[in-house]
Amino acid sequence: MFLPKPVRALALASTILLIFLLLQLSRKATPVKEPRIVYPDMKTDPNLEETHEPAGHLWRADDYAVDNPTSPRINATILSLVRNEEVDGMVTSMRDLERTWNHKFNYPWTFFNDKPFNEEFKTKTRAETRAPCYYEVIPEEHWAVPTWINQDLVRESGQILADEGAQYGNLISYHQMCRWNSGIFYHHPALQHIRYYWRVEPKVHFFCDVDYDVFRYMHDRNKTYGFTINLYDDPKTMPSLWPETMRFAEAHPEHLKPPSDSARPWLEDKQRRPEHNEKANGYSTCHFWSNFEIADMDFWRSRAYEDYFNHLDRAGGFFYERWGDAPVHSIALGLFEDKSKIHWFRDIGYQHIPYFNCPNSPKCTGCKKGLFTDGEDFLYKEDCRPNWFKYVGKG
Q1: Residues 6+ apart with CB under 8 A from 260
Q2: What's the pLDDT tens digit per position in 250-268?
Q3: Strand-pair partners of 134
Q4: What pTM was computed for the model?
Q5: Count of C-beta atoms within a 10 Å radius of residue 352
Q6: Residue 85 to residue 124: CA distance in whole angstroms
Q7: Which residue, 52, 392, 54, 51, is CA-closest to 220?
Q8: Nearest CA to 307 among 299, 295, 297?
């Protein structure tokens, strides 16, 4: 039977489409990236275990209305160092944290910048929360490069760091930021009557409903510091940090916790990545990733920490090398604080590209349980949690 030309063309097109669909169905589906364990002494990621809230009494979201003068809120704030041009990334972070936690507890947001905040920043951030928002300018003397720093040496060493591939090695504002976050921020007048803070950066994500007051938890359990992600750092950015720390420790043994009570073995481990320990001259480079930290500023204000920071500041490594606030905070906590006062917030789902803390909890959405990174496989070797679990535990 003769078929009209249009009908034949339609039949041919249908046949080609059918063949294409059959070929697609016959191919193997691209697998979803699964959590991967690379260390033989951590057979399974603890985030694959069912995750619950911390045990014991927790403060729930009763009576936390923003206008309640007798609210159970304590002297704490959500804190962010952020620039005007990062407002959209900041809104993303605020939206997540307000949705998962702060819309229930209404803790204030305190924003810091070395320049005045513009009206766009203020308008957009205020629209994301019912809680008070405060916009603070960092005093010039808190942000400026100290007078004892040799600027010629800074430029030379910054170029060397850049040539060696150290991220932000020759970006002076990054060095200033690291110094401010390490030992200056808690001296700001706006924080003088604040004890606890939750640090939040632009473009981070929170995945899990948190139904208790985390600041009350820190206070009631006598915790000093809370983290989610625990990493190795780049040893070429800090070759003299540990030697300077040991010089300080020898001069001030009164500040050191007994080895049995401290996390010092976590700081000095050389079994898992011996090349890091060697290049960093005795430091494992393990640190709490401080873009997320919930902490008690009384520790930073203590004599032990102030003495330590001032020693490091005079040594110049914030500018001649690239000492970050994450290793500085972590070393101080590992040496001067009882390890039982450092808490892994395993129930708080969190992402700062490219790393995650993803609990196994029905309270979490959008975060694959046990996933450490959705990046390339080589990033798994940056996970230092196995060391923390080995020397300290999962508390």
Answers
A1: none
A2: 999 999 999 999 999 999 9
A3: 110
A4: 0.91
A5: 18
A6: 12
A7: 54
A8: 299
Distance CA(237)–CA(322), nearest Å, equals 5
The 3-state DSSP class for residue 128 equals coil
* Half-sphere exposure for 266 (CA within 13 Å, toward CB): 30
Residue with the bigger pLDDT between 30 and 232: it is 232
Among 218, 382, 214, CA closest to 289 = 382
Token couple for 54: 């911390």
Residue with tokens 């010629």: 152
pLDDT tens, residue by residue, 296-347:
999 999 999 999 999 999 999 999 999 999 999 999 999 999 999 999 999 9
Please give the helix or strand (H or E) that residue 330 lies within, else none: helix 325-336
Catalytic residue list contains 85? no
Q: Percentage of the chain surpassing pLDDT 90?
A: 88
| N-terminal to C-terminal alpha carbon distance within the chain | 79
pLDDT tens, residue by residue, 355-376: 999 999 999 999 999 999 999 9
Measured distance CA(319)–CA(322) in Å, rounded: 6
Going by C-alpha positions, the residue among 392, 350, 60 that lies closest to residue 214 is 60
Pairing of strands 109-113, 205-206: unpaired
Which of 244, 293, 337, 382 is catalytic? The answer is 293
